Amino acid sequence: MAYQIGQVVEVTAGDVAHGGWCVARPADGPVLFVRHTLPGERILARVTEVTTRLARAEAVEILAASPDRVVPPCPHARPGGCGGCDWQHAALPAQRVLKAAVIRQQLRRMAGIDREITVEALPGDQEADQGQPARDPGSGAGLGWRTRVQFAVREDGVAGLRSHRSHQVIDVGECLIAHPAITDLGLTGRRWPGEASVEALVAPGSGDRAVIVSPGRTAAAASERITAGTVLRRVGHRVAPVRGRGYLGQHAAGRDWRVSAGVFWQVHPAAADVLAGAVVAGLEPRPGDAVLDLYCGVGLFAGVLAAAVGPGGTVIGVEADDAAVRDARHNLREYPWARVHKGDVAAVLARGFDSAPTRAGSTPQEPPSGAVRRGGLPPARLAVADPPRSGLAREVIDCLGAAENGLSRLAYVSCDPATLARDIGLLAGRGWTLDSLRAFDAFPMTHHVECLATLSAAGVTDRPGGPGSRR
Fold first, then answer.
1. Residues pairing with 202 in the sheet
2. Looking at residue 423, what DSSP letter applies?
3. Which of 93, 200, 410, 451 is deepest in the core (most CB within 10 A)?
4. Distance CA 211, CA 226 (A)
5. How far apart are CA 356 and CA 365, in angstroms?
6. What's the farthest any 2 CA atoms get from each other in the chain?
7. Which pTM value belongs to this model?
8. Looking at the annotation, which residues are catalytic?
């Protein structure tokens, strides 16, 4: 049977799939990827998209519900509604089980590794895990956490959120997963004529708030009616302050961090603190160690690792974004043994390592005769990488996996289970072993999840204060 867009079919939802879908496999038709359902539910699904290999649909009626189903707290979390939340119709503990299943599925498919996964709740979201799943939409667990929200602006000036896989802007009024300090700005309650988007950011630790108007033609006039301390306008890929200092003071790992308004910072209030502690626990840095922090952003991991290795150690951050590099250098100024290289990670690593020892069984790679290695990185025993959703560039994997570079342990932070699993598989092919994989529910109500994989290189004898050495 060939599906038609708009057709309604009765199916039973099967396993969860990456992206907030469940897979239905009807006997008389192609595979259906269905939103707004849960595994095991019998549903009526309306087809929304058809390709040569599969079809996409949304559950418009639940004929037999899963015991994990709850009433979505937000009225816009429904077929045809806002596309921001994928799992509001599932109890929080069930959401984490679904995310764990996706991680395990991707790890098995992309890396050939089969292991049990547990997705951990972050502080502030555990209340639904005590006893029976919370089914009261007003319980607050999993809501009010998002400290950065970008609202799209439609032609009539209304700021809202887009429908799933669509440019349609939904007037949501109040976004329930937005932090209360963002909701208090009232951005969705006013008009933004001529603008493309309006973005709100908040730093719960300091109370700082910022608003970015894009493309910002009326940002100066609008700033008088925006209660945030900082207002910026977006010009291309850069943001320029209209009012305020242009950055927020974030708090994590027991200290304050300067974070420019256009620069990446974890959106869950507890995520930066939890991940910083998890990276240190995974790498087990020692005094005198040398560490690389790749895609270092504002220097969160570099900062906690610099404190751990002490003045006898070395921490090198690598980051391409101009504003993030400035923030990182500011945030690391109390650690003279930590510095930040500005540039593409693959390009910086291509400069090589100065006098890097080799791992067991490898052959040192000498530069061509007469070649001069300029700007080589110091040899490092440990590395942490927090790349964008696209994962590690192949050149970065080649460098990390090269035995002659002496790296012995890697902490890999990722918000995409598919690219993480792909890269783990590539590193495994270069002799690395996945020691542990922790997952954190840093994005409740959505399909997104934050992971930390810790890997070790084969044939390395760890030497305090230096990189891995030949046995």
1. 209
2. H
3. 200
4. 8
5. 10
6. 74
7. 0.91
8. 415
CA pseudo-torsion sign 248, 254, 255, 259: negative
> What is the CA 448 to chain-centroid distance, rounded?
8
Residue tagged 């909701």 (tokens): 183
- The tokens describing 388, both together, are 């964008």
Task: List the beta bridge partners of residue 238.
Answer: 235
CB within 8 A of 169, min separation 6: which ones? 152, 153, 154, 158, 160, 161, 162, 163
Tens of pLDDT along 340-386? 999 999 999 998 887 544 443 443 343 333 333 345 788 999 999 99
The model's pLDDT over 47-103, given as tens digits with 9 standing for 90+, comes to 999 998 899 999 999 999 999 999 999 999 999 999 999 999 999 999 999 999 999
CB 361 within 8 A of CB 459: yes
Phi and psi (nearest 5°) for 417? -60, -30
Query: Rounded distance, CA 66 to CA 42, Å?
Result: 9
Tokens of 66: 């899963």
Site of tokens 């290695």: 373
- The CB density around residue 235, as the number of other CB atoms within 10 Å, is 12
Closest CA to 447 of 83, 62, 81: 83
Cα–Cα dist 162/160, whole Å: 7
Residue 188 DSSP SS3: helix
Residue found by looking up tokens 């956490």 in the block:
145
